[in-house]
Write a structure and sequence with these properties.
Layout lengths: L2 H4 L20 E8 L5 H12 L2 E4 H10 L6 H9 L6 H25 L12 E6 L5 H10 L5 E6 L2 H15 L6 H24 L3 E5 L4 H17 L1
Parallel strand pairs: 1-3, 1-4, 2-3, 4-5
Helix pairs in contact: 2-9, 3-4, 3-5
Bound molecules: uridine-5'-diphosphate and magnesium ion (MG).
Uridine-5'-diphosphate binds next to helix 2, helix 3 and helix 4.
């Protein structure tokens, strides 16, 4: 892909006929899904500490793009996030793909400096945790097809009243446009109507590991460790 084409939004992601941008042999992708407030970010941070994953939060990437000076998408992203709607997938997928590429090339550079085999071919498979994505069917299909199919989906399950309580608590300090009662209600609706079909889609592919995330952070993390063990051994 040319440099210009790699710029966010200048072209469609990639044509449907091309193969994925990353070889699943070189890259391991775990999706971390669950309702708003389920603990995706918290648990991903632990996985990074213990297993050296690269953690990419779709929501964080979108918020960073929203704030990036000169972004043509800033206003649009803010509106979608406040309304609890899903930003058009081209934007989110391109942000994720760019971030994955950046992580891969910094890894390759480090390997070279360390005197390893050098170049991307010589480094071990890079592990990515993709948090809060995909949450709409079109994103799931497009990402699998054009970026990289996932190895596993961690699904954090938690009852809505607990999610609400957590989000309202977080809203006191998060400064997020969507941690208020009105946006939270819309996010729950989007989760049930739009994101649950994605979980069902991956369940049919036997990729989903359900985790009860209503428990304490430590207990949830222990269950996640058990859940991802097969992928880490692979
Ligand atoms: N979002 C989106 N596409 C994505 C992921 C997130 O449009 O693939 C938007 C959506 O409006 C969502 C918001 O970003 O409600 C916040 O997502 P985040 O994952 O940060 O929230 P969480 O679910 O972790 O509370
Ligand atoms: Mg999050």
């Amino acid at each position: 892909m040319s440099v210009a084409a790699a710029e966010l939004g200048t072209t469609a992601t990639t044509s449907a006929t091309s193969s994925p941008a990353f070889d699943p042999k070189e890259v391991t992708v775990i999706f971390v899904l669950g309702g708003p407030g389920a603990g995706k970010g918290t648990q991903c941070a632990r996985l990074v500490q213990h297993h050296g994953f690269v953690h990419l939060s779709a929501g964080d990437l979108l918020r960073a793009e929203q704030q990036r000076e000169g972004s043509q998408f800033g206003a649009m992203i803010k509106e979608y996030i406040t309304e609890g709607k899903i930003v058009p997938m081209e934007v989110t997928i391109k942000l994720l793909e760019n971030a994955m590429r950046a992580a891969m090339s910094s890894e390759a550079g480090e390997a070279k400096e360390a005197g390893a085999n050098g170049g991307v071919k010589g480094i071990p498979a890079r592990r990515f945790l993709i948090d809060g994505f995909p949450r709409q069917m079109d994103q799931a299909v497009k990402f699998d097809e054009t970026v990289c199919p996932s190895s596993l989906v961690l699904f954090l399950v938690c009852p809505e009243p607990i999610l609400l309580e957590r989000l309202l608590e977080r809203g006191k300090t998060s400064g997020r446009d969507d941690d208020n009662a009105e946006s939270i209600k819309k996010r729950f609706q989007t989760f049930v109507n739009t994101s649950m079909p994605v979980v069902d889609y991956y369940r049919k592919q036997a990729k989903v590991v359900d985790i009860d995330s209503s428990k304490s952070i430590e207990e949830v993390y222990a269950d996640i460790e058990k859940g991802i063990a097969p992928v880490l051994r692979a």
